Amino acid sequence: MSAGDPQGKSLVPRWTPYAFMAPVFFYLLFLDFIPLLNELYLSFTSTSLLTPANHIWVGLDNYRELFRNADFLHSIWITAIYTIACVVFAIGIGLIAALLLDAPFRGRAVARVLVTLPWAAPPVAVALIFTWIYNAQYGVFNYVQKLMGFDAFENWLDTPNRALIAILIATIWQIFPFSSVVILAALQGVPRELRESAAIDGAGPWAIFKAVVWPTILPTVMILALFVTIWSLRRFDLIWLLTQGGPIGATNTLVIDLYRRAFVYRDLGAGASVGMIGLSIALAVTMVHYRLSRRFGAAGA
Amino acid sequence: MTALPTPLRISAVVLLLALAGFPFYWMFVTSLTPSSDLFASTPNFLPKWGEAGVYREAFEKIPVATWLLNSLIVAGGTTFLSLAIALFPAYALSRFKFTGKGVIGLSLFATQMLPEAMLVVPLYALFGQLKILNTLTALILANTAFTVPVVVWILKGAIDGVPEEIEEAARIDGCSQAGLVWCIVLPLIAPTLAAAAVIAFFHGWNEYVFAQTLVSSESLRTASVGLAGFVGELSTPIHTVMSIAMIYTVPAIIFYLFVQKYVVSGMTAGGVKG
Fold this sequence. Notes:
A: 12 helices; 72% helix; B: mainly alpha
């Protein structure tokens, strides 16, 4: 009997749920929504970080300028590449790791814990160690490249067409463990009997994966994909510390662009506009995801 | 993956562990390599235990202890506040039907889309008015805005799993609704509560953007900001920087090792299953 059921109504006063929701309501209001509205307002103004109280209403000017700016349009493209690569590789590697760690072997419990460690590492420490690993002259990454016979003496973080890959390696290293933990949990829900009877019927591992394992974990993978997408769209610390969006804008994602405009060029209005555009993209992606997961939910699992 | 031959499977696991562990190992080895050897053409792949004094030096030369204490206060405060704020709303979302429930649930999810870099400006203005800029309280409040939705969601998942019959008996005995959450539900979801606590703690411990922008006093620097100050700076030897990075990373890792069992089960019980 739920407290909201007709039978339970007499036991719980109508205001109880609202009283229970109060703390989170006030929190959302003051620390998320009022700031968000403030940000929306700023995006229609010309406001300097140096005199944040002086707003000059400029309407859609900030947005118009952004969409005429090739560097900004390029940053949308970079954000897309960064996000898609994070989703594909973090979940792909996470899935392989989860499948490996799902099968029984000695020391499995320890291996499961060790694989998840990067997830617990502070991003600033991750940025520092990867900066050192990528160092042009003394970095171990460079050393391995030389051993493999490639031209060395190049810092990937300083090379426009490699910086994004270098950042992706660091990001994916840090987030794939989360995917593997979540997928590993979903794998516990795969019915053992189904797997075994498929094996007895002569189905190969790939056939079993496609017919039994994948449909079971698909809903989890879909939610995971949404989370990794949203986290990648708003990722700041690792990218800022590794490249600050450089070299020549090669890693300038929307959030880096936002921060750069607001805090380096001190243009709060333009920064807020970038933020609103980024938020719109996140909302659009979420809606597409919602449609997709409903379709998959009906047809698939 | 049981289908793969055992040697191949074991090598794959070993490779996986090496990839996950190498940056940690490298941080450690670098911290123990004297500056003169860091710039050799062949990297030094083994730790030089005789150089362990660099850890003591880091504490003597650099205010690492203050940074860690600040991080601990911020992470602890964020954890406590997040759990305190989230418990009753999580219960309400799990057990009650009420007008506006959908909107609040959706709003909680939507906060996950807001980049910290975007909220920093309005929060700066808000905290300025409240006269709490440049305090650790500001950081705790700002971090909690990010952790509360996650914690609510995880706790709701756990409360969904608690059979309502258990509550009925207590209700009949005259226990109040709030008392019920506190005395009956809370102990039953303790493992998940631990998981949520860890997630909130890590967020507070690792956070960088707010700590960098909302606080300016050197004495209130967190470890993430203190360490970030070494990025691209040449005057501090790299092995000192890596030793501080180790000192900052190890407590998080140890803490995680103790509680990872709950984190994993908490996430499974919680929102991730949808």
